[in-house]
Write a structure and sequence with these properties.
Length: 413
Amino acid sequence: MIRPISISLSPNTEADDVRLAFGQIISFWKWRDRSPVLKLEKEFAERFGFSRAWSFNSGRSCLISILEAAGIGEGDEILVQAFTCNAVPNPILWQGAVPIYVDCLEEDFNMDAFDLERKVTPKSRAVIVQHTFGEPADIDRIRGVCERHNLLLIEDAAHALGAEYKGRPVGSFGDAAFFSFSRDKVISSVYGGMVTAANPEIGERIAGIQKRTKFPSLFWTVQQLFHPLLLNLMVLPVYGIGGKYLLVLFQVFHVLSKAVHRKEKQGGRPSYFPMRLPGPLARLALLQLSKLERMRVHREQIAELYLRELKNTSFVLPRSFPERRSSRLRFPVRNKKAHEIIERAWGKNMLIGDWYTSPVAPADTNLAKMRYEPGSCPVAEALSRETLNLPTHIRCSVLNAEAVVSFLKNYED
Ligand SMILES: Cc1ncc(COP(=O)(O)O)c(C=O)c1O
């Protein structure tokens, strides 16, 4: 197999996305056109019933802006779940605040409301609730804890665009919420994100913060436009015979960006956070947003295939909750040999997912710098040893999903 079955590497990109990216690279006179940004914010807010939405160049920039709008600063404690990405604790640390890690639940990979309540102290200011893999967290319980202790609730809906809890879109339950449009999220503009705020004071401050936040350089913007193009036309078609080295080369020479900068693993902040979403990337996001429902239905069909084909195997399947609708960003399964399976699959050019192999991923993140104390969240640590995730995106066909299933079943034998 030369083209991999991959969970990441530009998973949402179809031919029209590639054409749009190419068209924008050559239309240099439109690089500074900001009209698509307002259009995207308006369409996004209308579609999900938010009163307003403010775009930034990433979920990380969104979170920085929310924390600033909420007046979070030196010494404040922000409760976050372990089994997360360093993109969550880093913005907290960059504000001078302290991430306090809450354990998660095996059944949904999300925050455990009981452990949350145990970890509240007089310094606690806010809870960031993550909807992991797109599965809504137990919002009622978590909101209850926030109300009892007068804490702000921030929803990390980076994985969960289109997910619902009791028929309402995630992102509408907290004081503020953010979504991500980064390269392997529900929709993608390579880098991008959106803030919404049910709390009007926070919303007003976000609007002010957005106004004084700069747009990224043209170099950075065009670098992102190359991602769908080069991944789909040059890297993926030859991935198994050198494409992966081509990708590294493009990144080394800064033709393509990386999702996480090396310094973030040590708690450092790249210069391009926080910044606003530039017009060309807003255009990519608009096209993706227009395809969201078709892509969501596809993800659901692939997830149903996994549920059907993997039941009665040694793989522990995710639990279903009648009051929750997952975005199915990734389909997580558990197995004691998860890391071995992931490695073997990668060797066969089947790039199944490894979110998350550490309580604060990626695995080479400096946990001490993230203020994570080993042993403090045993469930999250067990999950990070046992979880692998399967692709559901629009480029993962039924045949691809069947190949993944048959690989897993063979492994079991
Ligand atoms: C759970 C979670 N929250 C937040 C983020 C940050 O999003 P972004 O990559 O757009 O900065 C990510 C993505 O890396 C994530 O996985």
